[in-house]
Amino acid sequence: MRKKVIAGNWKMNMLPNETINFIDEFSKLVKNSENEIILCVPFIDLFYALLHVQGTNIKIGAQNMHWEEKGAFTGEVSGNMLKSIGVEYVIIGHSERRAYFGETDEIVNKKIKSALKYGLKPIVCIGETLEQREDGKAVEIIKAQIQFALKDLDKKMMDDVIIAYEPIWAIGTGKTATSEDANNTIKAIREEISKIYGQNVAQRVIIQYGGSVKSTNSHELFSMSDIDGGLVGGASLNAEEFSKIANYK
Ligand code: PEP
Fold first, then answer.
1. What angle do CA 51, 52, 55 make, to 5 degrees?
2. Residue-wise pLDDT tens digits, 101-121
3. How far is the CA of 74 from the CAs of 33, 66, 77, 100, in angstroms?
4. Which of 38, 43, 65, 84 to pair with 53, CA 20 to 30 A apart?
């Protein structure tokens, strides 16, 4: 039985004092949750977040990293740096990074390999645009993204990879894929992973849904056979709202 993994993506929100207040409130609300709960916070909040989740069931993730270990890459942060302060997860290839910062499938693949090398668990985002969906190309696009993203990864590495299926048209728009639709696409992703790594890996890999997840739709989405939790943007910024999502039973 796969565990539900519920991750918040704060994007470029929350100052350190807000992070500390959030964790103080949120940790009390989710202390009995049986799900894996992750907060992916801005770089400047990581250290504060890591200190404040000590003794709780909350894990901390970053939202991006560079693929090189160190060097002349002004403004960048490496996987090695993240690991050195105790970060466990890192979002890779979010659609906002692909759209606004020119992240290609090749860069995404390099970042995933580097994350794994430094012992971080990548949350790998894939998803189709509205145009691709309307052209009936969603599954084809997603399969190609999976093949690119996972290039050169072996079966063992797949134990530490989480996939987040996020239809781009559903991110921050209030539009959600229907639970059946999201489940069917995630099944197609599992099938693709099965073709590459076999059934065992495909049945073990955690695949989340992301795109306007809220406490009012999370239960239905997470109850579907192949949806193993969610990557949650806007609704993860409010402790009470996010706790309702994270407490899924
Ligand atoms: C996201 O940031 O990955 C996301 C899905 O955002 P939202 O939940 O706000 O749509």
1. 95
2. 999 999 999 999 999 999 999
3. 40, 11, 9, 18
4. 65
DSSP strand pairing (5-9 vs 229-232): parallel
Ligand 1 geometric centre to CA of 213 (Å): 7
pLDDT at 211: 96
The domain ranges of the chain are 5-246
pTM: 0.98
Name the CA dihedral angle for 129, 12, 10, 204, rounded to a multiple of 10 degrees.
50
Q: Are strands 89-92 and 121-126 parallel, antiparallel or unpaired?
A: parallel
- The CATH superfamily of 5-246 is Aldolase class I (3.20.20.70)
pLDDT at 89: 99
pLDDT band at 68 (very low <50, low <70, confident <90, very high): very high
